[in-house]
Amino acid sequence: MKTAFITGANVGQANLLTKALAERGWRVFAGVLPGAPTDLKTGGNVTVVDQDVSSTESVRASAERVKMALGDQGLDLLMNVAGVANIATGVLEAVDLAQAEKLFHINAFGQLRVIQAFLPLIRRNAPGSRIANYSSGAIIANPIGAGVYTMTKHAIHGMTLTLRHELAAFGIQVTSIVPGGVMTGMSANSHENTRNSWNKQPESIRKIYEPHLGNTYMKVLPDMLEKTGSTPQEALERTLKILDKKNWKPIELLGKDVDPAMGIMRRLLSDSSLEWVMRKTFKIPAYKA
């Protein structure tokens, strides 16, 4: 029986993936934020484990629980999925630095905490064991108003690239899963969320940026998510196909809005050309003298 640990499994893609792998016969340990609502219960192939990725103590305690449950066995798969998006939003000039630090503690340092705590269990099952760190299509598109979120996802991908070097000799594969838009709870009510986020910025900042970026932020981006984003089931099916691959690339694109279009553009276009395409796509106006 293969074994996996999945973070952020109380809801969303990690929740669906937990159920899908359990149905496939995996023994799945599901990391769930303590007190968060979830339909997951310990039973059958699923073991629910309390875990707050923003807390080093909590992550270490969750790893110890899994270690005790496995005995002499290790983990075949670690899925670093947990993350949040709707804090520290808005143009970078006005971002609340305390909120930005909070986002890094959850998204970027959260994944590092999990890797440090669970890597010994992954190494036990090497060669052949794997780590998938969830980054985001934002590292290719770099959408306005999501600068700090994008920063955390660039950090995750940088961590992944280094881990690929550090763990290659053990036969452990690592990848950044780069999803596009997925219509989950994190991205629900996108128009309302973007309007609320915009309105929370200082009035002086809104006056400066709204004539240039207001339409992009509050209409173009949420429109694109609703029109081109994947359904949760579509995203799950694509994730399972990635897990079935024999060899992982440094980046594995996930979602019809990023695969194959963004993969092709990354290979064929220069950075400047790709930036030009993104600005045209997002309707970001050019400077006019």
Question: Quick summary of this structure?
Answer:
The chain has helices at 12-23, 56-70, 97-124, 138-141, 147-167, 190-199, 203-228, 232-244, 261-268, 271-281, and strands at residues 3-6, 27-32, 46-50, 77-80, 130-134, 173-179, 251-254.
Features:
single chain; Rossmann fold; seven-stranded parallel β-sheet; 10 helices
In words, what does this structure look like?
- The protein has 289 residues and is of the alpha/beta class.
- It has one domain: Rossmann fold (3-Layer(aba) Sandwich).
- 51% of the residues lie in helices and 12% in strands.
- The chain is built from ten helices and seven strands.
- Strands 3-2-1-4-5-6-7 form a seven-stranded parallel beta sheet, sandwiched between helices.
- α3 (97-124) links the parallel β4 (77-80) and β5 (130-134).
- α1 (12-23) crosses α8, α3 runs parallel beside α5 and α6 packs antiparallel against α7.
- It is globular, with a radius of gyration of 19 Å.
- The model has no long low-confidence stretch (mean pLDDT 95).
| Tally of discrete structural domains | 1
> What is the number of helical segments per DSSP (H or I, 4+ residues)?
10
Rough shape? globular
**Radius of gyration from the CA trace?**
19 Å
How are the strands ordered across the major sheet?
A: 3-2-1-4-5-6-7
Taking the alpha carbons of the first and last residues, their distance comes to 65 Å
CATH superfamily (homologous) name: NAD(P)-binding Rossmann-like Domain
What's the main sheet like? 7 strands, parallel
Output the CATH topology. Answer: Rossmann fold
Structural class: alpha/beta
Question: How do the SSEs run, as a string of H and E?
Answer: EHEEHEHEHHEHHHEHH
Mean pLDDT value: 95
Number of strands: 7
Strand content: 5-15%
What is the oligomer described by this structure?
Answer: single chain
CATH architecture, please? 3-Layer(aba) Sandwich
